[in-house]
Design goal:
By secondary structure, the chain is an all-alpha fold. Helices cover 73% and strands 0% of the residues. Helix 1 runs antiparallel to helix 2, helix 1 runs antiparallel to helix 5 and helix 2 runs antiparallel to helix 3. The C terminus is likely disordered.
């Protein structure tokens, strides 16, 4: 999805190479963080990717032809839908982490958890409240 978005934008904004490279780098970092299993690093990589994607949508404001491009509009809708799904998954994950961490502190589970070496998990959080805003699409 993201490579398609980058290719669509490339055709209209060839001189915006730096912005497009940042998106590709952020995407690669997010993909690597997924395989690492570290929730904190994964959250940081996802936050960086989200920020760079917003820069592409901001860039589209400078190119009216790009904003009108059907492929770009469809990709923008798909990314918004994907972002909504990620937020739902984040809420689900954080709910399970909250329940897990609570159970680690409650008797008699805390005794078994300590014996078996279970540790509290970190929440998957967005770095800034500003990043929680939906991407604004203007027609």
């Amino acid at each position: 999805l993201i490579p398609n978005l980058v290719e669509t934008v490339k055709g209209y904004a060839a001189h915006e190479k730096e912005t497009l490279e940042k998106v590709v780098q952020a995407r690669n970092a997010a993909m690597q963080a997924q395989s690492g299993g570290d929730a904190k690093k994964q959250a940081e990589a996802e936050n960086a990717l989200s920020a760079t994607l917003k820069s592409i949508f901001a860039l589209s404001e400078s190119y009216p032809d790009l904003k009108a491009n059907q492929n770009f509009l469809e990709l923008q809708r798909e990314l918004t839908d994907t972002e909504d799904k990620i937020q739902a998954a984040r809420r689900f994950y954080n709910g399970n982490v909250r329940d897990f961490n609570t159970k680690l502190q409650v008797f008699p589970t805390n005794i078994m958890a300590g014996t078996l070496g279970f540790k509290a998990r970190e929440f998957f959080e967005i770095a800034e409240v500003k990043e929680r805003e939906n991407i604004e699409v203007k027609f």
